[in-house]
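Data availability (excerpt). The following record was deposited with the supplementary files.
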Amino acid sequence: MSTTLYPQHTALSLAASGVPVLPLRRGKVPFGNCPVCADNACGGRPNMKTPGPCDCPGVCHAWAAATTDPAVIVSPPWAAAWRRAVCVAYHPGAAGLTVVDLDNADAIAWARTVLPATRTVATTRGEHWIYRGAMTSHNAVRPGVDVKSSMAYARYLGPGSGHLVDLPDAVRALAAKKPSPARPAPHIGTLPAGSGECPHRTPAYLERGIAMAEQRITEARSAIHATVYRTFLAVLSTHGRCACLTDTHVTRLFTAAQTKGESLRHCTDAWTNARTTLGL
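Predicted structure:
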């Protein structure tokens, strides 16, 4: 059965096997939050660590919306989402799985040398290697390699080939690996303070700006990379020279972008490029 032509049917089949699912819209990203849950005003899922729908009937909170409940999957809000969906995603960690996302031929060659063979699924540009066992998700653990498990989603691209094996220590070690000193992670938080009193430093003004930026990223339907960069640029052009932004604000922006499928590497590059453009 085609996962593209019949996403709801695929979702029901996966849910019946205990795999929490959610629909992805154009751009292969989750649907944006409903008005009640906009900007996470509803508080989100408890601790955002368990799968399942939030209290509203919509498909909200990205990976945290993933469910195995067939009644939810066929409910009117979800049925409408499935009609617009371009593919099915699932929450690997909640299914007790870890996906090693290999984005290119070099990454696949590395995996064949270092990692034990397991179930393999072809992707547009590379492969998903799926292991039995959950762990914390990490992006860009090495060139072309992301690890998707808890608090992340992965596209369902078919059953694949090969047999599941237990999550190896080599994958867990990737998450613990420190950044290479040759390319240290750029600082994304505190910015140089400007001269004089900050004209923007009121909680309401700053909060509204960050919330609008999060919403702009969340509601983007296409050109996600460009939207993230333009949003970062807009935030920095307003608050980048007066030290308004804290690490907490920047983390919120990065989280919104990563929920749309951006890797940490892409977020960091976009932030750095925006700062460079503005001379910060």
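Summary of structural features: The two ends are 52 Å apart (CA to CA).
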